[in-house]
Amino acid sequence: MAKILITEDEDALRSFVARALQLDGHETVEAGDGADGLARLKDEPFDLLLSDIRMPVMDGIELTHQASAAFPQLKILLMTGFAEQRERADDLSGKVVDVICKPFTLPDIRKAVAHALAA
Known about the structure:
single chain, Rossmann fold, five-stranded parallel beta sheet, 45% helix
């Protein structure tokens, strides 16, 4: 299965998503903000970056720009609970597979990740 980096500042949501993806056999690594996520990307290879857009230190938009420049083959899936944040991701269409809106269900996130990995 895939190795997935989950970058999300909300601990409970990050853990929920990690457990959901582990049910599908994926290996998950967690980061609490974009800067930590970028550091982890530089330390080891990943198949997918699953990142919140709105985070402290470095947001998901900046993380996407830096990650896609450094790792052009990396698949990126963003998540957000804010409509205006989704609109900010529109200019990333060539860099991200999709943006999933919060709140989402367990089947929603599992399906979105499966789709992103197949893209």
